Amino acid sequence: MVGDSTFYHAVVPALLNARYNGADFLSIVLDNETTAMTGHQPHPGSGVTVMGDTAPRISIEQVVEGLGIPVHVQDPYDVEATTNLVHRLIQEPGTKVLVLRRACILVAVKGVAKAQYMVDQKRCIAEACGCGRFCNRVFSCPANIWDEAEGKARIDEAVCNGCGVCATLCPQQAIIRVGEV
Fold it and tell me: Which residues are registered as beta bridge partners of 119?
């Protein structure tokens, strides 16, 4: 599993070697269209040079296909489809690449109205849910917090970026969209 910037800077030779030697593995590229880990610097797939000039994007898919490796692209926010695709791909022989593409939320929401989510306290059944507080213990979104006073999950509006993934994961459908800010 690598980021898109790392793909361009270090992974291509490894994929070439894997294909040449017939390795059976799945490489997952987390493509958020920026070098988010170190400050959102551009890379060959971002369409902008280090000097800020517009440049043609170098497609991850075209690079991988050029190596003769099967490549798939998936939206990671579609958790069920992504899980099913990963499960299928890891069972197939040969070298494969899966690109999970979604723009970095920190860049995508700048200056744009975003969805807001909240936990419907009537629907949230807390520890009785049977999910082991998946929403805030396992999923670990910093906006999904445990309200000790209520004994239930709660969304911190100041931290929520409006992606909505938490709402798709709640087995009680207690996380709901309430509008835009």
Answer: 175
| Selected residue with higher pLDDT from 179 and 90 | 90
- Domains plus CATH for the chain? 2-108 (3.40.50.970), 115-180 (3.30.70.20)
Report the pLDDT averaged over residues 77-91. 95
166 three-class SS = helix
Alpha-carbon distance 174 to 136, whole Å? 13
As a residue count, the chain comes to 181
Under the phi-then-psi rule, with left for phi > 0, alpha for psi from -120 to 50, and beta for the rest, what region is 39?
A: left
Contact between 19 and 95 (Cβ < 8 Å): yes
162, 116 contact by CB (below 8 A): yes
For residue 31, give Cα distances in angstroms to 42, 44, 75, 152, 161: 12, 12, 10, 33, 18
| Residue 34 predicted with pLDDT over 90 | no
Which residues share a beta bridge with 158? Answer: none
What's the token pair of residue 5? 């910037």
Neighbours of 70 (CB within 10 A): 13
